[in-house]
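Write out the 3D structure for:
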Amino acid sequence: MTAALSNTPAAIEARARRAARRFGYIIKKSRSRTESLDNFGGYMLVDPYINGVVDGVRFDLSAEDIIEFCTESAGSANHETESNVEATK
């Protein structure tokens, strides 16, 4: 049984929040109603343990960007783990 992923903005945002949570990050959504040079009305990815911005300093990420960032991070983390295992053999 295959479930089709919904492409509504709310569903994409929820997927982005889950992807970020898997890596210990949180997402901050811009609350600004108007765009400015420092706020593009998108998302910011934050590491709550150091209270630092990981990406999207100017709220310039989309939910899709966050999902892509986390997917790439997972791929590089898996690659590093596999290379560490091979190095210890």
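Helices lie at 9-22, 63-88.
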